[in-house]
Amino acid sequence: QSKGKKPLFVQLVLDNIWSLYEAVMKRDKEKIEKIVTSLGLKIGPRESRHADPKVHLNAICSQWLPISDAVLSMVCNKLPSPLDITAERVEKLMCVGARTFDSLPPETQELKSAFMKCSSEGTAPVIVFVSKMFAVDTKALPHNKPR
């Protein structure tokens, strides 16, 4: 970096994203066309002629770097299978704070085996685990809004 060289990530990834962003925001049609054809993308005329350049940028990026596909494949490849969970881990997930698994109601304790089986049968209980909760202002909640 001291000799004017950029890090490899900047050269290979960020410079390309920045050049695309700059070309779309400045409406450089020649450069945009070159980028779209080199990436093999098909951008509709509606998006390319839209008054807001962010629509055009979104159309290009959603085909070039689809985040939903990347996140889903990462989750599938990196997260361990739920069938590999240990009994101790299930008990930890089912207990909150200082409570022990033995102090839970019997109905809840019976869910441990269903939790470990991960069965998709129609008779199997549906278990939902909320891993993170955050505070939301009551003004932001959809109270009594017409549907």
Order of helices and strands: HHHHHHH
Low-confidence stretches: none
The 3D shape can be described as elongated
- Distance between the first and last residues' Cα: 56 Å
Please summarize the sheet with the most strands: none
Mean pLDDT score, rounded?
Answer: 85
Radius of gyration: 25 Å
Number of domains: 2
What portion of residues is helical? 40-55%
Number of helical runs?
7
* Helix and strand composition category: mainly alpha
- Quaternary structure classification: single chain
In total, the number of strands is: 0
Strand content: under 5%
Give a structural overview.
There is one protein chain. The chain has two domains: about 10-70, no CATH class; about 80-145, no CATH class. The chain contains seven helices and no strands. The N and C termini lie far apart (about 55 Å). The mean pLDDT is about 85. The longest helix has 18 residues, at about 10-25. With about 150 residues, the chain is mainly alpha-helical. The chain has helices at about 10-25, 30-40, 45-50, 55-65, 65-80, 85-95, 105-115. The chain is elongated and about 70 Å long. GO terms for molecular function: GTPase activity; ribosome binding. One of its GO terms (biological process) is cytosolic ribosome assembly. This is EFL1 GTPase.
Q: What tags apply to this protein structure?
A:
ribosome binding; EFL1 GTPase; GTPase activity; 0% strand; mainly alpha
Please render the helix and strand layout as text:
Blueprint (H helix, E strand, L loop, with lengths): L7 H18 L3 H11 L5 H4 L4 H12 L2 H12 L8 H8 L11 H12 L30
Protein name: EFL1 GTPase
GO biological process, one term: cytosolic ribosome assembly
GO molecular function: GTPase activity; ribosome binding
